[in-house]
Amino acid sequence: MNKWLTLLCCAMLAAAPTALAQTQGKKADDKKQAALAKKKKQDEEIQAHMALVTECDKQAKTLKGSAHKNFMRKCLNQ
Description:
Blueprint: H1 2-59, H2 65-76
Helix pairs in contact: 1-2
């Protein structure tokens, strides 16, 4: 009985680092996926903002100085 108990304990101790490494590896992968998703979302937001800036600037081509500045401010805050 003691031999089986000892063998079982040894097997559990031997398997523990492997299970821990798999769990930590999964957490690292989840963090990488979350970071990639966040970066992708930020990139999409930047692209959308730049498209809006370009469109507003096209509409404000004839304006100069403070009129251009005020138009751009209003256009970008929509």
